[in-house]
Specification:
Strand order of the largest sheet: 1-3-2-6-5-4
Strand content: 35-45%
Number of helices: 4
Order of helices and strands: EHEEHEEEEHEEEEEH
Helix content: 10-25%
Low-confidence stretches: 194-227
Structural class: mainly beta
Largest sheet: 6 strands, mixed, barrel
Number of strands: 12
Radius of gyration: 31 Å
Mean pLDDT: 86
Oligomer: single chain
Shape: elongated
Length: 227
């Protein structure tokens, strides 16, 4: 597991007005909570934060959050974005205990789909039903992602959660709830054809000629008017 760091500064001002002033100054208000310490209000430099927020690991890794030079291990639990601007509005970080299991969503990486029999077969559609999955593990075992090898995928296959190869110390809590929670992760199926459903004529049945068919379909001629 890679180590990623983020620098922050403690802040004392609270409220919407203070948060608005921070954003105008290029800072993002945030909070750190959890563990034995009290919740702490902090601020993070926006441009650097925006840059690292483009990386997948930012959402699925344990971060070392340095607040005024003092490091603490945290997970990103919530991030609020502006509805239309490229701006991060607020962050929530949770402190972690190295000896306490955590529940977290991690992304799935799909490998070798184009090399699989299903990927090479015309008319077969491979759908990713899940793009992330909820796991439980100790912080030291937290993976940044879980790989799903599709090299053997064939048309008609369904890859369920129970078929995933998990790193050591990682479990899927959903599987403890019963078979109905063993959701499909990947499905390979044939695309539906758009052919018309035309029934073949029975043996011995006469097929009307084109002229006869048109005559049968044409409306009866109107009677001639009397002079």
């Amino acid at each position: 597991m890679s180590e990623h760091q983020l620098n922050a500064t403690a802040r004392k001002d609270e409220g919407k007005g203070a948060s608005r002033r921070l954003r105008h100054a290029g800072q993002v208000p945030a909070i750190v909570y959890g563990g034995s310490a009290a919740p702490e209000s902090i601020q993070v430099e926006h441009n650097h934060l925006w840059h690292i927020s483009q990386n997948e690991w930012f959402y699925a890794s344990i971060l070392t959050l340095n607040v005024d030079g003092k490091g603490q291990r945290v997970l990103l639990r919530d991030m609020q974005r502006h509805p239309f601007k490229q701006q991060i509005m607020h962050l929530d970080f949770q402190r972690i205990d190295e000896n306490e299991a955590i529940r977290f969503n991690v992304p799935l990486h799909f490998l070798n789909q184009e090399k699989s029999p299903a990927g090479k077969t015309a008319g077969v559609i491979v759908t990713h039903e899940l793009n992330e999955i909820t796991i439980v593990c100790l912080p030291r075992n937290l993976p940044e992602f879980i790989e799903v090898d599709l090299s053997a995928l064939t048309a008609g296959d369904i890859v369920h959660m129970s078929a995933l190869k998990l790193p050591e110390g990682v479990t899927l809590p959903a599987l403890k709830l019963g078979k109905e929670h063993d959701l499909a992760v990947v499905i390979a199926k044939h695309a539906r054809g758009q052919e018309e459903d035309t029934a073949a004529p029975e043996a011995g049945a006469e097929v009307p000629s084109t002229k006869a068919a048109k005559a049968a379909a044409a409306p009866a001629a109107a009677p001639a008017k009397k002079k």
